[in-house]
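Hi all, posting the design record for the shared folder.

TITLE: backbone redesign
STEP: 1 of 1
STRUCTURE INPUT:
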């Protein structure tokens, strides 16, 4: 007999909300399997990529952020930014991974 389990995940986003609209957003970005990657030189590189995001995305303001060994908390503001919050986070993940 084979037992299958179905994992139901809680939705992380509001269903009909436009995440490209102006406003302040609190975000958390976690590393894969909560691996402590943000330590030593890699922390400096990840932070440098984070603070450079407003040069890549006009209309993006970084209010505050906190790097932990396995995740980041941040408050960002979109003010007339042509990009979505999702595309900004995706770009950061790609840049930080390099």
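Okay, here is what came back for every position:
SEQUENCE:
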């Amino acid at each position: 007999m084979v037992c299958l389990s179905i994992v139901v995940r809680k939705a992380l986003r509001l269903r009909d909300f436009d995440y490209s609209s102006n406003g302040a957003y609190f975000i958390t970005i976690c590393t894969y399997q909560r691996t402590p990657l943000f330590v030593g030189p890699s922390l400096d590189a990840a932070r440098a990529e984070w603070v450079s995001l407003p040069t890549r995305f006009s209309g993006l303001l970084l209010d505050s952020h906190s790097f932990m060994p396995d995740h980041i908390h941040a408050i960002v503001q979109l003010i007339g930014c042509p990009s979505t919050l999702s595309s900004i986070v995706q770009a950061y993940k790609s840049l930080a991974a390099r």
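COMMENT: The mean pLDDT is 89.
Let me know if anyone wants the other runs.
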